[in-house]
Write a structure and sequence with these properties.
Chloramphenicol Acetyltransferase; 10 helices; 5-stranded mixed β-sheet; phosphoprotein; Non-ribosomal Peptide Synthetase Peptidyl Carrier Protein, Chain A; alpha/beta; 5 strands
């Protein structure tokens, strides 16, 4: 009988590297040494057994490709965030269990640590190259036992009392079967999603996979920073990238349709407000807009894009990206 267990991070990383380059040795740490004298086969076998017992990646046979999911999901997240923020480099915070040491495998306690994963979009790489860059960046996992607080102290970045240092976006991936389930004898236990009053990060994007192959993506966000329209657009863009991504397609082309809508809206916002330019996340009202000017925006949108957007939608999402997300939902909003 073969028992299937969820793969550890070390197993997933070896699996991904082998799938990316089956003939390479990036996943191997070769050591050569010479031993002279008679060979004690029994002692050699015992030494190898001890080595295998200590290093979990050598214990398990796993299907190729399983660990590529998190790399693809993280890369797609970086594409969307880079597009929305207009940046070529994005930092994602990844929560790690931090239980690589066998001494803590059965210890109760909270050992979770944050690792910063860099997504490099510079040079407009195709999706294949981006996956390679993300795979290389997973070397940060080798230092997952370094406390995040110590890393922040060493780098000493400018601090903001209302923002998390270094990373403001957290990405979480839960493969099928990896979500913890509480079981109590004689009791039925059901998990409830709670709407907490505060967010741990400015934005947390979480992907949960089920055994039937489906995935659920949800976001936790700070309402002081983002509005619901922006989050709706972000999730729609994320789905779009995952549906359309192909290995040979440059990342700049993965969201080209939304980019065209945003460019038109940027020009409309700027013209109505009488300013030179408007950022994708600039609040219309904070730039001097008011309700009468908002009517002008709605009229211009209908004339230039042939779509209707209601004043209520513009009030709720008074930004370029928010308005673009509302426009690109199925059907017109009124």
């Amino acid at each position: 009988m073969t028992t299937v267990f969820p793969m550890s991070f070390a197993q997933r990383r070896l699996c991904f590297l082998h799938g990316l380059d089956p003939t390479g040795f990036a996943h191997s740490s070769a050591r050569c040494f010479q031993v002279t004298g008679p060979l004690d086969v029994t002692a050699l076998r015992a030494a190898v057994d001890v080595l295998v017992a200590r290093h979990e990646p050598l214990r398990t046979v796993f299907p190729l490709g399983a660990s590529q999911h998190v790399t693809v999901l993280a890369a797609a997240c970086g594409v969307v965030l880079g597009h929305q923020a207009g940046r070529e480099r994005v930092l994602l915070g990844l929560a790690v269990a931090n239980r690589e040491l066998p001494e803590v495998e059965r210890v109760l306690g909270f050992f979770v640590n944050t690792v910063a994963l860099r997504i490099d979009l510079s040079g407009d790489p195709d999706f294949r190259e981006l996956l390679g860059r993300v795979a290389d960046a997973t070397a940060a996992y080798a230092h997952q036992d370094l406390p995040f607080e110590q890393l922040v102290a060493e780098l000493a970045p400018p601090r903001d009392p209302v923002r998390s240092p270094l990373v403001q976006v957290n990405f979480a991936h839960h493969p099928a079967g990896s979500m913890g389930v509480m079981a109590l004898h004689g009791c039925a236990v059901r998990e409830h999603l709670l709407d907490f009053a505060t967010a741990k990060f400015e934005l947390t994007l979480r992907v949960e996979e089920s055994v039937d192959g489906a995935s659920v993506v949800w976001a936790e966000f700070d309402e002081r920073v983002f509005d619901t329209g922006f989050i709706d657009g972000l999730l729609s863009s994320y789905e779009e990238v995952l549906r359309t991504a192909a290995l040979e397609v440059p990342v700049s082309r993965l969201l080209s349709a939304r980019g065209a809508t945003e460019r038109v809206l940027t020009r409309i916002f700027a013209d109505v407000l009488g300013v030179e330019t408007v950022g994708p996340h600039d609040d219309f009202f904070r730039l001097g807009g008011h309700s009468l000017l908002l009517v002008d925006v709605a009229v211009r949108v209908r004339a230039e894009l042939g779509r209707d957007i209601g004043l209520r939608d513009l009030y709720q999402t008074p930004t370029v990206v928010g308005a673009a997300a509302r426009l690109e939902r199925a059907g017109d909003t009124r």
